[in-house]
Specification:
It is built from 21 helices and seven strands. By secondary structure, the chain is an alpha+beta fold.
Amino acid sequence: MSSDGPQRRVIAVAPLPPEKSAYALARYSRSTDSIEDSLRWVHAHSSEKFWEQFYFAYGHASIADLGHVIICFEHISELAAIRLEDEPLWDGQAKSSRYQNFGPSGCHVPDAIRGSETEANYRGILSSLFTCYSLLHDPLKKFIAGKNPRPADMKDADYDRTVAARAFDVTRYLLPLAVRTNVGQVVSIRTLEKQIARLLSSQLPELRAIGEDLTDACQRPPMNIWGELSGQTGPVDPLAPTLARHAKANPYQTEVYTDLAKHAREVLKNTGLDAPGSWGKEETVELIDAHHPLDELAATLLYRVSQAPYRKILAVVQEWSEKQKQDTIEVGLRKRGPYDELIKEFRSGYAFTFDILMDIGGWRDMHRHRRCQQVQQNFTTAHGYDVPPALVEAGLAKDYRSAMDAVKSDIEQLRKTSQEAALYAIPFGFKVRCLFKMDYAEAEYVSKLRSGTKGHWSYRTVAWHMKQKLAERHPYLGGLIQATPPEEEDNLTR
């Protein structure tokens, strides 16, 4: 038999509408046609019937992985940005709180409080935070410059930007979750559909509104600045009209966390887990010993709607009967529809589970590690706030503490009239608890990357503790991780 045949080709294909590209590649996999012929065929035929039949009727979800979109979200709250990004298959970037001054950004104001006394109180809290954010920046920048003189080989402009970035790294602790930001993402249309459904199912009105805007954007021709600048003319197809039209709010996602919260209040009553004073010393990083999958699922579901440390919840769960554990798991399942994915709290079985308590600002950076599974508790002021070491060294900590203490008290009062507004008013400096489940490769990657000297001291400390905790439990594996101690500094590395 002759080995001669068609010659090997590697072909780069220019971007085309995502639903069309997915259709073409799906057809390509089931046809002897070349990619050129597949593209010509798809161009001459409507893709709507294909999507209706294969994606929605037959459930061939992987088809939608073959088309990708670029979507940008401008002037949304940081809270909304965090929720947008809460997807393991998400890729994107958000406006940097290190390299940009967020002072002029403005803030999201919930529609429910507009025109009320609550709005005035809310704006007062945000105003006090931004005032302190602005007042601390220049003296802090001066302090950092005095401590880190400009190297001879560094240009004045580069030096000034670097020092300013280090100052913004500190003052960002005062930014509220309401501050407006921009987010750019590149995702598959499969992830996009899940994202739309998740947004439409949210308890937060801003997120539901973003979900509606995203649906509309996918059904309209996209902005084509690049094409215009390149001299391209003619109509541009919508990005994902069929998928966007079918994406709906999901009753399972809408109700499951409310049901879990109600269940948690019932089953954890009289355990002391609703009283922070009973938790003992709160550690920045805890590495949880391996435990039974049934215990893990029940404890994780309760953790998500609690504020208590995972080890405390786990200790309660491990005393339960198997029936009690199953009852908790059933709450997380009972409203699940036939095509609903399990909520992420069911993603279990990872070798290393870290319960991490850290400032919201630093956690935002850790949140980008999507190869691990993250279960975040709700934002709160209950865990107190962190004080950046640089403010202490610069003699500016008193002003910062005064602002944060006043804001904490004001937020507690605000919560009585609007829980939504109180949530948005929480500054980045307050701490949040999050469970990170990962394999060894991700533990090594996070510890090594995030402990580097060019990083923020908050997550540098967390990454170093992760390595130390792992080394205590598994000396050989921990010893393989090349992490950098947080006391090693290089403030002029960008």
